[in-house]
Amino acid sequence: MEDKDIIEMLNSWNFWNHELDIGIEREFYPKKAIDLINESKISIIIETGIRRAGKSFIAKQIASNLIKEGILKENILIINLEDEMLINRDYSTLLNIYEVYKKNIKKGNNCIIILDEAQEVDKWEHFVRGLTEKGEAKFIITGSSSKLLDSEYSTLLSGRQVVIYVHPLNLMEYKIFTNNKKGVKNYIEEGGFPAVVLSKNKIDIIKSYFDTIILKDVISRFNIRNNDELNRLARFYITSIGSRVTFNSAANFLKLPVKTVYNFSIYLEKSYLLFFVSRFSFSIKAQDNSPKKVYTIDNSFPSMLGANPIKIRGRLLENLIASTLYLISKYIESFKFYYWYEDNKEVDFVIKDHNNYKLVQVAYSIKDERTKEREVSSLLDCANKLNAEQLYIVNIDYSGEELIEGRTILYVKAEEWITDMLIAYGF
Description:
The chain is an alpha/beta fold. It has a six-stranded mixed beta sheet, sandwiched between helices. Helix 2 packs across helix 3. It starts with a helix and ends with a helix. Strand 9 and strand 10 form a beta hairpin.
């Protein structure tokens, strides 16, 4: 490309001559990033998370906030590596873009470069390392899979990068996006992908997201040949949220080799489509040898690609709690969560923060006395084994407390419990 064509392309991506659409601001992520940018030792911020969670908009929000803080517009360079105008996506193209920018736009010695969807370009990490070692730039890098965090890249960028995990809208963000007109019942069904929340064609969008994640973040990345087997496994997991699964049981059900299920499961987790929760045990070996519980990052997948959401609303609520805990665990190193299963009794979540335990049962409704008795019985057994004092039954519409066998059980509405957890951990 000629210089004038590169400048024209860059102008369309950047704030230099016009305002860009930055969407509805999600304050947590820009603040987190800017605090890191202002630390002199940090030169690379990697935004990662599931495709379409809003990373590109957040990157522009970071740029917009930096400009408000006094950084010159010309010293922030956004490179959109998914733009169709970029015919060649390689290391030399990045170098060429930067040289044209440096010669025609950049003011002074330092700048901040945003590489949007960096995994689209081979050897992007060499470009980043070169400029950071020269002290010419700090970087914000977005990417739609954990490929950006693979050991080969981490080695090259060692000691320079900090990861910001971007989740679909949490409940508080969801309420902002919907002007507080929708609450947890809607959130349970439509999930937190920004474009889905703001669109009327929700199911079509989610189908396209699912297909793109499978194609770009799994099939293309890991060179998978049997697409049908991968799709079947992904949909099996999505429709099995909250269930205890093993690779053997999934392989038997789908009539696939266990090794295939094992590999595909790892790939699907690396794409951020789903995650697995371990059984709580003080023995690491027992944890590893026990079934995992499977969940999806966002409720839209099981709700819109699986069964009627009304029929699985209890499992959707459990998935929502799991997804919220997953988000917190990405930012709080001491925060771990598990499920508990012993003597045919189960507690949905054992939350461990340092040596503090919270036990959480999730039930859409506790109006049925048998359901309530079952949840309470499991909670008490687990509490006695772990000597836990904080016992919760999270449900859709009832608040209260009950003293049973010397232990207080708190019944908390899901909306309140999720909000309190997000606030308590700084979201």
